[in-house]
Amino acid sequence: MKVAIIGGGASGVFCALQLAKNNNVQVTLYEKNETTLKKLLITGHGRCNVTNFVDSKTFLENVPHNSKFLYTSINKFQPYDMIEYLNSLQMKTVVQENNRVFPISNKAITIKNAFDSNINGKINLCLNSKVEQIVLNNNKFDLFVNNSHQIFDCVVVATGGLSYPTTGSDGDGYKFAKNLNIKIIKPRPSLCALRVKQNIKNLEGSSVFCELFYSKDNKIKCSSKGNLIFTSFGVSGPVAFNLSSKIEEHSVCNDDLIVDFVPEISFDELRNKILNYKQNNSKRYLIHCVNEFVSLKIANYLLDYVKLNKKMQCANLSNENVNQIIQLLKRFKFNIENFDNIERATITRGGVDVAELNPQSFECKKINNLYFIGEVVDVDGFSGGFNLQIAFSSAYACAMDILKKC
Ligand SMILES: Cc1cc2nc3c(=O)[nH]c(=O)nc-3n(C[C@H](O)[C@H](O)[C@H](O)COP(=O)(O)OP(=O)(O)OC[C@H]3O[C@@H](n4cnc5c(N)ncnc54)[C@H](O)[C@@H]3O)c2cc1C
Q1: Which of 68, 91, 126, 342 is most buried by a 10 A CB count?
Q2: What is the CATH number that goes with domain 2-189+344-405?
Q3: Edge-to-edge strand ranges of the sheet holding 100-103
Q4: Rounded distance from Cα 374 to ligand 1 centre (Å)
């Protein structure tokens, strides 16, 4: 059987590694870049958080979007299987905070090198080869690459999403799918920062442990707790990334982000603390009181925002002022402009509609022997190694299905 894999990223290369074990399959892998696994090299800040060492049930709880579709593939090839596979390539791994798994070398390049050396000579690797078009012809696939074309029995599309296009993933898989009448869910950024409408230049660089809520039409839709970093245009850091991934909505402009700057203090406790402060520090300024709970930079921003006199003596705080401070600290509202640009998002939400694919194999229901795997499919997980594992597990399910046919 002649198989073409389009895309030499994590999913495409892993699929090739599985298929290369069988001599009855002739695999050609097309990669438009001059080398494979360009995106893998930048994962985990160059350390590659390769998977997350949890059982499959916990794994799926970390997939906020279309987790049911992944049930079979994640159970078939679990994080532990990935760790064992890496061990079989003499690559030791280490489990760190929150079950994140890294190569013991702490370098993504060791994974790339091991994968590359295990496909070399076993498959036909075509670098600098951008697939332009897939044409279905009498149950075979005609692939147009670099001004020539080749015929295959089976095609695996592993072209990734739209994020970090300099690594090569710039949406070609969606074009292939559309031309073959396969439904695409409109892509949008995920695991990304959120832009806000307010001018927050004065907050840039501040970080805070908080709870962040996403609110639409004045209704809280989802929330996340953790570290937030203010940038020149909005909110970033783990809590913002996590929240962006929980948001189901496609468009968020005109919705709100609400920050609880003191998530470990209840409303009543906060009121008591402020009243105590007022009583014991009557001569001190309001800014000192707010600074008890947040950094001076954030305290200045919050009080300027509502135009409260920062030098007001605490003794003069009215009940209304106390309510205002509680509201500022526990429910500060930013208006969302949008998600950050997709080019800077860690992953793409959307892509090939899972309803088009068989969850056992990632084969198209409409077109036999055509598969979509990895980020080009509309599934995504939280950060922590879940997205690479989705790439590996989908590639494994697809490869096993192809091998069954040989
Ligand atoms: C900065 C960053 C850090 C990340 N860190 C982590 C992490 O630590 N852990 C984790 O689990 N996930 C991480 N991710 C997410 C993870 O990298 C992706 O989920 C994963 O790479 C998806 O694999 P893929 O094979 O589907 O797509 P990709 O890795 O994007 O590979 C797609 C490949 O297809 C090629 N291609 C595209 N179109 C064509 C064409 N027409 N012809 C030929 N080739 C083509 C591209 O050049 C590319 O090499 C990170 C992502 C980013 C951007």
Answers
A1: 342
A2: 3.50.50.60
A3: 51-52, 100-103, 93-95
A4: 8
